[in-house]
Design a protein that fits this description.
This protein is an alpha/beta fold and 277 residues long. 40% of the residues lie in helices and 16% in strands. One manganese (II) ion (MN) binds next to loops.
Length: 277
Amino acid sequence: MIESYDLHCHSTASDGALTPTEVVQRAADFGVTALALTDHDTTAGLFEAQQQASLVGLRLIPGIELSTNWQNKCFHIVGLGIDPHYAPLANATQLLQSTRIERAEKIAFKLEQKRIPGALQAVMKAAGDGMITRSHFADFLLSQNHVSTQQEAFDRYLGQGKSAYVSTTWADLEVAINWITESGGVAVLAHPMRYKLTANWMNRLLTTFKEAGGQGLEVITSRMNPDELRRVTDYAKRFNLAGSVGSDFHNPENPWVELGRLPTLPSHIKPVWELLN
Ligand code: AMP
Ligand code: MN
Ligand code: MN
Ligand code: MN
Protein backbone atom coordinates (compact mmCIF):
# COMPACT_ATOMS: atom_id res chain seq x y z
CA MET A 1 0.00 0.00 0.00
CA ILE A 2 1.18 3.53 -0.76
CA GLU A 3 1.45 5.50 2.48
CA SER A 4 0.17 9.06 2.64
CA TYR A 5 1.45 11.07 5.58
CA ASP A 6 0.08 14.22 7.18
CA LEU A 7 1.99 15.00 10.36
CA HIS A 8 0.55 18.36 11.45
CA CYS A 9 -3.11 19.27 12.03
CA HIS A 10 -5.52 20.67 14.61
CA SER A 11 -8.81 19.72 16.23
CA THR A 12 -11.25 21.33 18.67
CA ALA A 13 -8.74 20.42 21.41
CA SER A 14 -7.08 23.68 20.28
CA ASP A 15 -7.99 25.96 17.36
CA GLY A 16 -9.29 23.44 14.85
CA ALA A 17 -12.92 23.47 13.74
CA LEU A 18 -13.41 19.69 13.68
CA THR A 19 -13.50 17.27 16.60
CA PRO A 20 -10.66 14.72 16.77
CA THR A 21 -13.09 12.11 15.43
CA GLU A 22 -14.00 14.34 12.49
CA VAL A 23 -10.36 15.16 11.71
CA VAL A 24 -9.42 11.49 11.58
CA GLN A 25 -12.48 10.64 9.48
CA ARG A 26 -11.73 13.48 7.04
CA ALA A 27 -8.07 12.44 6.80
CA ALA A 28 -9.12 8.89 5.98
CA ASP A 29 -11.61 10.21 3.39
CA PHE A 30 -8.78 12.18 1.76
CA GLY A 31 -6.55 9.10 1.55
CA VAL A 32 -4.24 9.82 4.50
CA THR A 33 -2.92 6.55 5.93
CA ALA A 34 -0.75 8.00 8.73
CA LEU A 35 -1.89 11.11 10.59
CA ALA A 36 -0.39 13.06 13.48
CA LEU A 37 -2.84 15.18 15.46
CA THR A 38 -0.74 18.09 16.76
CA ASP A 39 -2.90 20.46 18.76
CA HIS A 40 -1.39 23.60 20.30
CA ASP A 41 0.13 22.75 23.70
CA THR A 42 -2.27 19.89 24.38
CA THR A 43 -2.63 16.15 23.93
CA ALA A 44 -6.27 16.15 25.02
CA GLY A 45 -7.59 15.13 21.58
CA LEU A 46 -5.34 12.12 21.13
CA PHE A 47 -7.44 9.52 22.92
CA GLU A 48 -10.56 10.27 20.89
CA ALA A 49 -8.51 10.47 17.69
CA GLN A 50 -7.02 7.03 18.37
CA GLN A 51 -10.50 5.53 18.88
CA GLN A 52 -11.60 6.74 15.45
CA ALA A 53 -8.27 5.82 13.84
CA SER A 54 -8.73 2.22 15.04
CA LEU A 55 -12.24 2.18 13.57
CA VAL A 56 -11.20 3.38 10.11
CA GLY A 57 -7.82 1.60 9.97
CA LEU A 58 -5.67 4.72 9.92
CA ARG A 59 -2.34 4.93 11.75
CA LEU A 60 -2.50 7.73 14.33
CA ILE A 61 0.83 9.17 15.43
CA PRO A 62 0.42 10.90 18.81
CA GLY A 63 1.56 14.49 18.44
CA ILE A 64 1.60 17.99 19.85
CA GLU A 65 2.60 21.47 18.64
CA LEU A 66 4.40 23.21 21.48
CA SER A 67 4.68 27.01 21.67
CA THR A 68 8.24 27.82 22.65
CA ASN A 69 10.56 30.76 23.13
CA TRP A 70 14.14 31.21 22.04
CA GLN A 71 15.94 34.54 21.94
CA ASN A 72 12.69 36.39 22.72
CA LYS A 73 11.00 34.95 19.66
CA CYS A 74 8.25 32.34 19.41
CA PHE A 75 8.80 29.04 17.59
CA HIS A 76 6.49 26.09 17.17
CA ILE A 77 7.93 22.65 17.81
CA VAL A 78 5.94 19.65 16.66
CA GLY A 79 6.47 16.51 18.72
CA LEU A 80 5.77 13.24 16.87
CA GLY A 81 5.39 9.84 18.49
CA ILE A 82 5.27 11.38 21.95
CA ASP A 83 3.94 9.68 25.07
CA PRO A 84 1.15 11.95 26.35
CA HIS A 85 1.41 10.31 29.77
CA TYR A 86 5.07 11.24 30.24
CA ALA A 87 4.80 13.34 33.42
CA PRO A 88 6.98 16.36 32.53
CA LEU A 89 5.12 16.75 29.23
CA ALA A 90 1.70 16.31 30.87
CA ASN A 91 2.65 18.86 33.55
CA ALA A 92 3.82 21.28 30.88
CA THR A 93 0.50 21.14 29.04
CA GLN A 94 -1.29 21.93 32.33
CA LEU A 95 0.93 24.95 32.86
CA LEU A 96 0.51 26.11 29.26
CA GLN A 97 -3.27 25.93 29.66
CA SER A 98 -3.03 28.36 32.61
CA THR A 99 -0.69 30.56 30.57
CA ARG A 100 -3.23 30.65 27.76
CA ILE A 101 -6.12 31.52 30.10
CA GLU A 102 -4.12 34.36 31.67
CA ARG A 103 -3.13 35.64 28.25
CA ALA A 104 -6.76 35.49 27.09
CA GLU A 105 -7.79 37.64 30.05
CA LYS A 106 -5.17 40.23 29.11
CA ILE A 107 -6.12 40.22 25.42
CA ALA A 108 -9.79 40.65 26.35
CA PHE A 109 -8.88 43.56 28.63
CA LYS A 110 -7.01 45.28 25.81
CA LEU A 111 -9.97 44.77 23.50
CA GLU A 112 -12.30 46.23 26.13
CA GLN A 113 -10.11 49.31 26.17
CA LYS A 114 -10.72 49.51 22.42
CA ARG A 115 -14.47 49.44 23.13
CA ILE A 116 -14.82 45.79 22.19
CA PRO A 117 -16.47 44.08 25.17
CA GLY A 118 -17.39 40.42 25.71
CA ALA A 119 -14.35 38.76 24.15
CA LEU A 120 -13.34 36.64 27.14
CA GLN A 121 -16.76 35.09 27.57
CA ALA A 122 -16.98 34.40 23.84
CA VAL A 123 -13.57 32.75 23.47
CA MET A 124 -14.01 30.69 26.65
CA LYS A 125 -17.30 29.40 25.28
CA ALA A 126 -15.84 28.73 21.83
CA ALA A 127 -12.75 26.95 23.16
CA GLY A 128 -14.73 24.84 25.63
CA ASP A 129 -12.35 22.39 27.30
CA GLY A 130 -9.75 23.07 24.60
CA MET A 131 -6.85 25.49 24.51
CA ILE A 132 -7.76 29.15 23.97
CA THR A 133 -5.82 30.61 21.05
CA ARG A 134 -5.67 33.87 19.17
CA SER A 135 -7.69 32.16 16.43
CA HIS A 136 -10.64 32.14 18.85
CA PHE A 137 -10.24 35.90 19.30
CA ALA A 138 -10.04 36.33 15.53
CA ASP A 139 -13.29 34.39 15.12
CA PHE A 140 -14.93 36.56 17.78
CA LEU A 141 -13.80 39.81 16.12
CA LEU A 142 -15.07 38.48 12.81
CA SER A 143 -18.46 37.45 14.27
CA GLN A 144 -18.88 40.93 15.77
CA ASN A 145 -18.01 42.59 12.44
CA HIS A 146 -14.96 44.37 13.85
CA VAL A 147 -12.97 42.85 10.99
CA SER A 148 -13.92 41.22 7.72
CA THR A 149 -11.31 38.42 7.67
CA GLN A 150 -9.27 36.36 10.17
CA GLN A 151 -6.15 37.87 8.66
CA GLU A 152 -7.43 41.39 9.34
CA ALA A 153 -8.01 40.46 12.99
CA PHE A 154 -4.30 39.59 13.26
CA ASP A 155 -3.19 42.60 11.25
CA ARG A 156 -5.20 45.08 13.32
CA TYR A 157 -5.48 43.57 16.81
CA LEU A 158 -3.83 40.24 17.53
CA GLY A 159 -0.53 40.19 15.64
CA GLN A 160 2.79 41.02 17.28
CA GLY A 161 2.93 44.69 18.21
CA LYS A 162 -0.76 45.31 17.41
CA SER A 163 -3.22 46.91 19.84
CA ALA A 164 -4.45 43.74 21.58
CA TYR A 165 -1.16 41.86 21.40
CA VAL A 166 0.07 40.34 24.65
CA SER A 167 3.62 39.07 24.77
CA THR A 168 3.69 35.65 26.43
CA THR A 169 6.30 33.45 28.07
CA TRP A 170 5.98 30.00 26.57
CA ALA A 171 8.15 26.95 27.16
CA ASP A 172 11.89 27.32 26.63
CA LEU A 173 12.76 25.87 23.21
CA GLU A 174 15.48 23.54 24.47
CA VAL A 175 13.38 22.36 27.42
CA ALA A 176 10.42 21.66 25.14
CA ILE A 177 12.63 19.59 22.80
CA ASN A 178 13.70 17.61 25.85
CA TRP A 179 10.12 16.86 26.91
CA ILE A 180 9.43 15.52 23.42
CA THR A 181 12.56 13.39 23.06
CA GLU A 182 12.46 12.11 26.67
CA SER A 183 8.86 10.99 26.11
CA GLY A 184 10.08 8.90 23.18
CA GLY A 185 9.16 11.33 20.44
CA VAL A 186 10.88 13.21 17.62
CA ALA A 187 11.07 17.02 17.72
CA VAL A 188 10.36 18.82 14.44
CA LEU A 189 10.65 22.55 13.78
CA ALA A 190 7.23 23.50 12.40
CA HIS A 191 6.75 25.66 9.28
CA PRO A 192 10.37 26.97 9.25
CA MET A 193 9.76 29.59 6.57
CA ARG A 194 6.92 31.27 8.46
CA TYR A 195 9.26 32.93 10.98
CA LYS A 196 10.78 35.15 8.29
CA LEU A 197 14.29 34.73 9.73
CA THR A 198 17.45 35.88 7.99
CA ALA A 199 19.88 33.13 6.94
CA ASN A 200 22.08 34.06 9.89
CA TRP A 201 19.26 33.68 12.43
CA MET A 202 18.08 30.48 10.77
CA ASN A 203 21.56 29.00 11.07
CA ARG A 204 21.71 29.94 14.75
CA LEU A 205 18.25 28.55 15.41
CA LEU A 206 18.97 25.24 13.69
CA THR A 207 22.31 24.91 15.47
CA THR A 208 20.55 25.32 18.83
CA PHE A 209 17.69 23.05 17.73
CA LYS A 210 20.11 20.26 16.74
CA GLU A 211 22.22 20.56 19.87
CA ALA A 212 19.08 20.31 22.00
CA GLY A 213 18.11 17.05 20.29
CA GLY A 214 15.82 18.28 17.51
CA GLN A 215 15.75 15.81 14.62
CA GLY A 216 13.26 17.06 12.05
CA LEU A 217 12.36 20.00 9.87
CA GLU A 218 8.89 20.48 8.39
CA VAL A 219 10.13 20.53 4.80
CA ILE A 220 6.67 20.25 3.31
CA THR A 221 3.82 22.39 4.60
CA SER A 222 0.83 24.06 2.96
CA ARG A 223 1.16 27.14 0.78
CA MET A 224 4.90 27.09 0.13
CA ASN A 225 6.38 28.65 -2.97
CA PRO A 226 9.19 26.94 -4.96
CA ASP A 227 11.84 29.25 -3.51
CA GLU A 228 10.78 28.43 0.07
CA LEU A 229 10.84 24.71 -0.74
CA ARG A 230 14.33 25.02 -2.17
CA ARG A 231 15.61 26.89 0.90
CA VAL A 232 14.03 24.61 3.49
CA THR A 233 15.31 21.54 1.64
CA ASP A 234 18.77 23.06 1.67
CA TYR A 235 18.60 23.63 5.45
CA ALA A 236 17.46 20.03 6.03
CA LYS A 237 20.45 18.80 4.01
CA ARG A 238 23.01 21.09 5.63
CA PHE A 239 21.87 20.35 9.18
CA ASN A 240 21.23 16.67 8.48
CA LEU A 241 17.62 16.92 9.64
CA ALA A 242 14.87 14.50 8.66
CA GLY A 243 12.02 15.95 6.62
CA SER A 244 8.44 16.12 7.87
CA VAL A 245 5.26 16.65 5.89
CA GLY A 246 2.30 18.44 7.48
CA SER A 247 -0.66 20.42 6.20
CA ASP A 248 -1.33 22.42 9.40
CA PHE A 249 -5.01 21.85 8.65
CA HIS A 250 -7.40 23.81 10.91
CA ASN A 251 -10.79 23.86 9.19
CA PRO A 252 -12.56 22.77 6.00
CA GLU A 253 -13.30 26.38 5.00
CA ASN A 254 -9.75 27.19 3.93
CA PRO A 255 -9.48 26.07 0.29
CA TRP A 256 -5.66 26.28 0.33
CA VAL A 257 -5.09 23.82 3.16
CA GLU A 258 -6.44 20.29 3.15
CA LEU A 259 -5.55 17.11 5.01
CA GLY A 260 -3.03 15.06 3.05
CA ARG A 261 -3.05 17.36 0.05
CA LEU A 262 0.66 18.10 -0.05
CA PRO A 263 3.62 17.78 -2.40
CA THR A 264 5.86 14.77 -1.85
CA LEU A 265 9.05 15.04 0.17
CA PRO A 266 12.14 15.48 -2.07
CA SER A 267 13.65 12.01 -2.50
CA HIS A 268 17.09 13.01 -1.18
CA ILE A 269 15.61 14.03 2.21
CA LYS A 270 15.36 11.37 4.90
CA PRO A 271 11.67 11.05 5.87
CA VAL A 272 10.94 11.75 9.53
CA TRP A 273 8.66 8.69 9.74
CA GLU A 274 11.73 6.49 9.44
CA LEU A 275 12.62 7.78 12.93
CA LEU A 276 9.21 6.85 14.38
CA ASN A 277 8.66 3.36 15.73
P1 AMP B 1 -1.67 31.35 19.50
O1 AMP B 1 -0.88 30.06 19.57
O2 AMP B 1 -2.78 31.40 20.49
O3 AMP B 1 -0.80 32.57 19.52
O4 AMP B 1 -2.41 31.34 18.12
C1 AMP B 1 -1.67 31.12 16.99
C2 AMP B 1 -2.61 30.59 15.93
O5 AMP B 1 -3.26 31.66 15.32
C3 AMP B 1 -1.82 29.91 14.83
O6 AMP B 1 -1.65 28.55 15.10
C4 AMP B 1 -2.71 30.11 13.64
O7 AMP B 1 -3.69 29.11 13.62
C5 AMP B 1 -3.36 31.43 13.92
N1 AMP B 1 -2.68 32.56 13.26
C6 AMP B 1 -1.52 33.15 13.59
N2 AMP B 1 -1.23 34.18 12.77
C7 AMP B 1 -2.26 34.23 11.89
C8 AMP B 1 -2.58 35.08 10.80
N3 AMP B 1 -1.77 36.07 10.44
N4 AMP B 1 -3.72 34.85 10.14
C9 AMP B 1 -4.55 33.85 10.49
N5 AMP B 1 -4.31 33.02 11.52
C10 AMP B 1 -3.18 33.20 12.21
MN1 MN C 1 -3.39 27.25 15.04
MN1 MN D 1 2.24 26.70 14.19
MN1 MN E 1 -0.19 24.21 13.61
